[in-house]
Amino acid sequence: MSSGKLYGVSVGPGDPDLMTRRAYALLQESAYWTYPVRNSKSDSYALNIATRAGLSPPSDHCALIFPMTHDESKLGKFRQRAAEKVLEVLSTGNDVMFLVEGDASTYSTFGHLARHVIDMDSSIEIETIAGVSSFNAAAARLQFPLTEVDDKMAVIPANYGIETIDQLLNDFDTLVLMKVKPLLDDIIALLEKRGLVEHAAFIEKAGSLEERVVRDVSTLKGQTVNYLSLMLVKNPDHERGEILRGCRKKSTDNSKQESVLNA
Ligand SMILES: C[S@@+](CC[C@H](N)C(=O)[O-])C[C@H]1O[C@@H](n2cnc3c(N)ncnc32)[C@H](O)[C@@H]1O
């Protein structure tokens, strides 16, 4: 019997209407569903989006545990265990759907799972279904254009720290700060120092029933927010080089850029 196929099915950030037709169609097929949870007692945000879209899990489905930890050896064990479970189902000839919150290629557990599966059996076929990421949905919800004309944008987990964020604000027009929860107060202090509070916006659980939008981010000081929250920041003072033959000259290294263009 040939093995089933593993799908990473993006279900969007929370609003079931942001699930793609492809994801919706796949989840109506008879296949085994899996979905990530933090521990054996927690609910799956991805599964919740699918059920709110009117889809019902098949009789065969199971949660795969991916704990919230930076301990790589612990993470490795859980990823391995998840991959073993997926392979066990695939070996029966069934396809496996792994439901992913947001987009499956954006800070997703699916990449780890797929790599572990392939390491254990390189013949397994894998397909990733693209989806709406949390920050794309956030930008739309907040009426916050991410990029225009030749703006530069960086997407980073905030845990790189305040110095990095400060530096990136010099280099980019737009920052998408993911995973802001642990550093929220420090980020707000930085934005206040740089006079950027009015150019920032915050969203928690975008698209879900518990969605929270905060436009004056300084009001969040001292609050504990949900892990599923992010901040969008613009730096209207970001310096750009002038345009030379359609290309932006680097403001810091004009002579080099010019000599390349004149060569
Ligand atoms: C592990 S990443 C998952 C990203 C997801 N795959 C995506 O496409 O956006 C988790 C981080 O994404 C952001 N995030 C995910 N879903 C969100 C949502 N519905 N609302 C706000 N932020 C969200 C938060 O910054 C959170 O800490």
Q: Tally the helices: what do you get? A: 8
CA radius of gyration: 21 Å
Instruction: Write down the oligomeric state.
Output: single chain
Q: In total, how many domains does the architecture comprise? A: 2
Note the gap between the termini: 61 Å
How much helical structure, as a percent, in the residues?
25-40%
Strand order in the largest sheet:
3-2-4-1-5
Unreliable residue stretches: 253-263
Gist of the model:
The chain has 263 residues and is α/β, with parallel strands linked by helices. The chain is 31% helix and 20% strand. The protein folds into two domains: 6-132, Cobalt-precorrin-4 Transmethylase, domain 1; 135-234, Tetrapyrrole methylase, C-terminal domain (Methyltransferase, Cobalt-precorrin-4 Transmethylase, Domain 2, 2-Layer Sandwich).
How would you describe this structure to a colleague?
- This protein is of the alpha/beta class.
- The protein folds into 2 domains: 6-132, Tetrapyrrole methylase, N-terminal domain (Cobalt-precorrin-4 Transmethylase, domain 1); 135-234, Methyltransferase, Cobalt-precorrin-4 Transmethylase, Domain 2.
- The protein contains 8 helices and 12 strands.
- The longest helix has 19 residues, at 72-90.
- The chain starts with 5 loop residues before the first strand and ends with a helix.
- Bound molecules: S-adenosylmethionine.
